[in-house]
């Protein structure tokens, strides 16, 4: 089930842009939660349900600060689970641009080198914008741009197992380094910074990205898109 406050219908304001077909302010959804909680499952399901023309996804993981000035051994030791690890000004600037009908070049973070890649991804404005990340609900400026705030709440053991599997398969990490990082930064930072953002959520998914919960979210998005299309 979904637990949270009743969701008011908040229709976006109209705006006009000569370069884009969007004629309204997008419906912005924030999806937060701990590492391995299922945030990506929620975001990707919304995207798959409505398509890239209707939904743009901004990944906070790609907004880690550029660390080109640091040697690789120093980068690896950084605390990537602290709010200060992120480039907040750029993230806020990019979300504001999308809300105003302007495309962005979203950075791409390379987790194998612990640094921002030279590549970028073109993200075009859309009626629905999803901001996904550990700290999606942390920053007040971001929260103020959101129409719907979601916190994906998953048991710690499940989150750890998912993180371990991902880091070994996708990021070339050793089991020892994963466990050390989890105990030294991931777990304490989750308790100090991520878990408290649950209080800002309109909706809490208490058992992760389960099918009934995701269905409710996509139904809400479908309703919003339907209203926008009738305006």
UniProtKB/TrEMBL annotation:
Keywords: ATP-binding, Cytoplasm, Kinase, Nucleotide-binding, Transferase
Transmembrane segments: none
Chain positions recorded as ATP binding sites: 33-40
Root EC class: transferase
Pathway: Pyrimidine metabolism; CTP biosynthesis via salvage pathway; CTP from cytidine: step 1/3; Pyrimidine metabolism; UMP biosynthesis via salvage pathway; UMP from uridine: step 1/1
CDD domains (UniProt xref): UMPK
Catalytic activity: uridine + ATP = UMP + ADP + H(+); cytidine + ATP = CMP + ADP + H(+)
Cross-referenced PANTHER family: URIDINE KINASE
Family designation: Belongs to the uridine kinase family.
This protein's name: Uridine kinase
The species this protein was found in: Massilia solisilvae
Gene: udk
